[in-house]
Amino acid sequence: MTSRYAMLNIAPSNYLPGLVPVPPPSSVLDSLSRLAAAYATPPSTLVDLRPSVYAYSAPGTSAHDASEDEDEAGDAFEFSFARGWLENVLALGSRALARGVDETGEWERAVDEAARLLADLSGPSAQGSTTKTYLLLDSAHGLSTPLAHPYPTPPPTRPSSTAPFLPHTSPSSGPASTSTDISSSSLRLTIRDGTLLEASTGHRTWGSASILAHLLAASPSRFFSSISPSPPTPSPPLRVLELGSGTGLVGLAAAAVLSRLGVGARGGAEVVLSDGGDEPQAVLDNLRGNVDANAAAIGDGVHVRVERLDWGDYVPRGNGPAPLEQVSPASSAAERFEILLGTDLVYERGQASLLHAAAAGLLRFPSPSSSSSTTSRPTFWLALPIRPTHADETAEVAELFPSRFSAAVATPAAQLRRTDPETGKTYRLVAVEREELLGPSGFVSSGRTGRGGAAAMGELRYCVLRIEWDEVR
User: Fold this and answer.
1) Which residues are within 8 A (CB) of 450 and not within 5 positions of it... i.e. 6 or more apart?
2) Which intervals carry biased composition (Pro residues) (predicted)?
3) E strands within 301-425?
4) CA nearest 418: which of 380, 345, 470, 353?
5) Greatest CA separation found in the chain?
6) 3 state DSSP class of 417
7) Are 113 and 170 in contact (CB under 8 A)?
8) What sections of 39-151 are H helices per DSSP?
9) pTM for this predicted structure
10) Interatomic CA distance for residues 447 and 69, integer angstroms
11) Helices 106-120 and 25-38 meet at what angle, rounded to 10?
């Protein structure tokens, strides 16, 4: 069976020595050093989200052929072989230390190194924090330069929090660009991920966040159509809120793109990054650190702040339609936002209801002038994975944010309606656009899953919803 390690003549099964009889510790240390080099992952990882490199597959297609699937299975075998060898080294070294036969201290060093590598091969929950640099824009798109290679899907030894899509290739265009220069004009964001043990889901940059950050950079006019190139008079600041920010990649991407669009000369923008899930203080502290780390990427006209936000505060009280005053005081008209952003926000039953309450309490109502199709309307952009294990949660989202053309919109439940006190009009939130993508799950499978190459590479289907107010008549 072939694999990338075999092709490079670095397959662990080819060079790791047998442990019966027990080899000298110096030989074990040499093998550990070679294994560490083969599976090394830098503490700072580069993730290329630029439009010229980052690409997604259409649903129902796979980016890998049969030979690549075989290659992944070969990699999984080598990974399993290396882990088993390390576990045996730990056992042998521990016995040698217990017998006091380590005059040179080599067995102690071998045990320490084997334990470190074994933890490194165990995935994000066993590692320390990691810092990733996300590239968003290049000069070819008017806002940075191509890399020698797109950031590769990481080996199964150390699944990264976010793996980018494969580059577009075609007979006419060939692979993605091959230049290694990263221009100073490139738009880059530095994001710290903690471990899954550190603060649950909020310390991880999930796959949906990479998708939405890429789309924000690739098509800014799709999200910020209200920004006029030459407004006749200064306009009020554009207000953007990211719900469940986690590490803040999407909110920071929005802020950086707005800065590049020159929003500062058009009234400016305020971008609020929020969270309030498990262990919120740890998540918010990390979020503020990521905001500080990216201050240079955001111009003076865009103000970014971090706030704790509890979605439960926006659940309407009573059984009837919820006028604005029946919701949290924080949802007054002055506190509402033109744009809401959210990714990977529904992974338990009941969360969709809380999310709906927060979105309904925080998204600005349409103004009379925004009824025209050429005028931007307040919008909630929601990106979610379509996981077979979360079918109930996906169904909840579809029920609470139905398509504008579905029958459910005609007679919405009373608790889903909201009345704008300024106009007296009643609205409900509906999905006016739905895009389905195939991208990386953020985890790389350690072997065959029975679903072909896409599953072996840890790919998932995602949907991106554009949600707006629809008047209830």
Assistant:
1) none
2) 149-158
3) 302-308, 322-323, 339-343, 379-386, 418-419
4) 470
5) 85
6) coil
7) no
8) 66-99, 106-120
9) 0.69
10) 9
11) 20
